[in-house]
């Protein structure tokens, strides 16, 4: 059985070694420092590591910066499915920004695109409408440079209830199914490979 003081001494020695290494690395690299999970601007060094700097990239290439997964809701007018029928154009602008980011930075995530309707009209009509909405967004993304191979699935689900999930994992209450503009939507979500 190990003695608690021995464990404390061992962990203190490891912490001192790590701190001493990072302090020495910081001193030799100036403003640059290792960031295992960078949250701001980050660049790849000649050895392939990802570093951040308060002073700018200094001719280093950008590296992938972790981000919250995409979770967009594009709302449509009643019984409509074209881009001109989107009622929240700011979500389309967010989708454009995402497309530009994907084109500028290598990404591994896949996308799902799901069309929805509220509960007005027949089920068969709403199923076709929800599929058309999803296909509109898929076609838009592909025509703007997203590879079709990055889109894992495209589907319509008509009257299905439930709530959407935000990028942070929290639920978004959309309210009732009947005659509800919030439910006339396409949800684009980023998923990790293999999920």
Structural commentary:
By secondary structure, this protein is of the alpha+beta class. The chain has 2 domains: 59 residues, no CATH class; 121 residues, OmpA-like domain (60s Ribosomal Protein L30, Chain: A, 2-Layer Sandwich), CATH 3.30.1330. 32% of the residues lie in helices and 19% in strands. It is built from 3 helices and 10 strands; from the N terminus they run H-E-E-E-E-E-H-E-H-E-E-E-E. The chain has a 4-stranded antiparallel beta sheet with strand order 1-3-2-4. A 4-stranded mixed beta sheet has the order 5-10-6-7. Strand 8 and strand 9 form a beta hairpin. The N terminus is likely disordered.
Topology:
Blueprint (H helix, E strand, L loop, with lengths): L3 H26 L3 E2 L8 E2 L5 E3 L8 E2 L8 E5 L13 H16 L5 E6 L7 H21 L7 E6 L7 E2 L5 E2 L12 E7 L4
Parallel strand pairs: 6-7
Antiparallel strand pairs: 1-3, 2-3, 2-4, 5-10, 6-10, 8-9
Helix content: 25-40%
Measured by DSSP, the beta-strand proportion falls in 15-25%
Number of domains: 2
Biggest sheet: strands, sense, closure?
A: 4 strands, antiparallel
Number of distinct helices: 3
Enumerate the strands of the largest sheet in spatial order, edge to edge or round the barrel. Answer: 1-3-2-4
Low-confidence stretches: 1-41
